[in-house]
């Protein structure tokens, strides 16, 4: 005689009504959208003010539609002393400074990413601390050292200091990108006879190209907007970059020329926007490390 097995009745948990859940989801989405719109307005309003003031015939700091559109503000600033020479100085300072920072970051990040030693962790902590150190805290001793070694008012000296001050952030960011490159690819290259530099330039760097692009963009933007370092270390007016010459619109004239200041600000922003548009394509491909491993 076999005992009949009886399955206990399953108590179903009543599901939440669909309509209140959809309403809560819709309310949350609307709240997030409103916050994003508010944050966007905070960023857009200064840009809108700058765009309107650059083509306005009214020299006012209030945000209002101009009575008539004019390009006189651009004509007033498009000359050698006001725009072209400061922009060239900025390109030289930031271009060479960024190149030095990126190359030095790659060379410093590779041993930190691949080799283990007792000083590795303290060195990484030192780099992390240096990334948060405000540059204004060290400018007085830096100015004193530049005077003693006769590098004050020197474009190469200022470029080297800009590169050195950007190096901790570049090394830290580059190392994190380099950690994502599989070591097995380097081991395969070493079996084929490649040395360390060949592995770095032919295997690691092509796979972390988006990381190099990110470090390049962030470093260039940081140097391009740096006002304090060239203001302290460069004295001759013909050597000042655009980030310092914009100060003349606020101090050298009897009345602040808001229209010319806005026109100059738009021209001053163009190199950064162009650099981002040119290098942003490199960010779309990703690392493709999975495909490399499968190959």
UniProtKB/TrEMBL annotation:
<keyword id="KW-0813">Transport</keyword>
<keyword id="KW-0472">Membrane</keyword>
<feature type="domain" description="ABC transmembrane type-1">
    <location>
        <begin position="87"/>
        <end position="279"/>
    </location>
</feature>
<feature type="transmembrane region" description="Helical">
    <location>
        <begin position="257"/>
        <end position="279"/>
    </location>
</feature>
<feature type="transmembrane region" description="Helical">
    <location>
        <begin position="212"/>
        <end position="237"/>
    </location>
</feature>
<keyword id="KW-1133">Transmembrane helix</keyword>
<feature type="transmembrane region" description="Helical">
    <location>
        <begin position="31"/>
        <end position="52"/>
    </location>
</feature>
<protein>
    <submittedName>
        <fullName>Carbohydrate ABC transporter permease</fullName>
    </submittedName>
</protein>
<feature type="transmembrane region" description="Helical">
    <location>
        <begin position="87"/>
        <end position="110"/>
    </location>
</feature>
<comment type="similarity">
    <text>Belongs to the binding-protein-dependent transport system permease family.</text>
</comment>
<dbReference type="Pfam" id="PF00528">
    <property type="entry name" value="BPD_transp_1"/>
</dbReference>
<dbReference type="GO" id="GO:0055085">
    <property type="term" value="P:transmembrane transport"/>
</dbReference>
<feature type="transmembrane region" description="Helical">
    <location>
        <begin position="155"/>
        <end position="174"/>
    </location>
</feature>
<keyword id="KW-0812">Transmembrane</keyword>
<dbReference type="InterPro" id="IPR035906">
    <property type="entry name" value="MetI-like_sf"/>
</dbReference>
<keyword id="KW-1003">Cell membrane</keyword>
<feature type="transmembrane region" description="Helical">
    <location>
        <begin position="122"/>
        <end position="143"/>
    </location>
</feature>
<dbReference type="GO" id="GO:0005886">
    <property type="term" value="C:plasma membrane"/>
</dbReference>
<dbReference type="InterPro" id="IPR050901">
    <property type="entry name" value="BP-dep_ABC_trans_perm"/>
</dbReference>
<dbReference type="InterPro" id="IPR000515">
    <property type="entry name" value="MetI-like"/>
</dbReference>
